[in-house]
């Protein structure tokens, strides 16, 4: 029943900024982690950033100091603020959520993906 809806992708010049948003539709009993992944053309999907239920964030080395992940207190929205963008950041970005839809084992959810193109 739970779905992730992404928005905010587009084209930007190198050195510019872009912010991605992911809305959580539905109800989770407990969220374990929210995150963003990306997949460049011809490449494997890779982790970009995560934020857990305690607010602790994790970033890949390639985006540290440039990207910031955040969420609202209700766990309804997760934001990826991207600054100082590079052409190598060009990829399809996917929102990800891990959590418990009900008491039991956890499940994983993915957004449809949004294209980010950095021109340089």
Q: How is the secondary structure organized here?
A:
Layout: E1 3-7, E2 10-13, E3 18-25, E4 30-39, E5 46-52, E6 57-59, E7 67-71, E8 77-82, E9 91-100, E10 107-110, E11 114-119
Parallel strand pairs: 2-11
Antiparallel strand pairs: 1-3, 3-8, 4-5, 4-9, 5-6, 7-8, 9-10, 9-11
Task: Provide key terms for this protein.
single chain; 120 residues; mainly beta; four-stranded antiparallel beta sheet; elongated
Quick synopsis:
The chain is mostly beta strands.
Description of the molecule:
There is one protein chain. With 120 residues, the chain is an all-beta fold. Helices cover 0% and strands 57% of the residues. The protein has no helices and eleven strands. It has strands spanning 3-7, 10-13, 18-25, 30-39, 46-52, 57-59, 67-71, 77-82, 91-100, 107-110, 114-119. The strands form two sheets. Strands 2, 4, 5, 6, 9, 10 and 11 form a seven-stranded mixed β-sheet that branches. Strands 1-3-8-7 form a four-stranded antiparallel β-sheet, with no helix packed on it. A hairpin with a 4-residue loop joins strand 5 (46-52) and strand 6. It is elongated. The model has no long low-confidence stretch (mean pLDDT 95).
Order of helices and strands: EEEEEEEEEEE
How far apart the termini lie comes to 40 Å
Structural class label: mainly beta
Low-confidence stretches: none
Which range best describes the helical content: under 10%, 10-25%, 25-40%, 40-55%, 55-70% or over 70%?
A: under 10%
Q: Note the total helix count.
A: 0
Rg computed from alpha carbons, rounded to a whole number of angstroms: 14 Å
């Amino acid at each position: 029943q739970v779905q992730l809806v992404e928005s905010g992708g587009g084209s930007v010049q190198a050195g510019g900024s872009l912010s991605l948003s992911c809305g959580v539709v539905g109800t989770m009993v407990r969220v374990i982690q929210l995150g963003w992944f990306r997949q460049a053309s011809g490449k494997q999907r890779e982790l970009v950033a995560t934020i857990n239920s305690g607010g602790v964030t994790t970033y890949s080395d390639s985006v540290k100091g440039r990207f910031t992940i955040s969420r609202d207190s209700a766990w309804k929205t997760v934001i990826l603020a991207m600054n100082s963008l590079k052409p190598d950041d060009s990829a399809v970005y996917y929102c990800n959520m891990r959590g418990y839809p009900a008491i039991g084992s956890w499940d994983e959810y993915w957004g449809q993906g949004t294209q980010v193109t950095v021109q340089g």
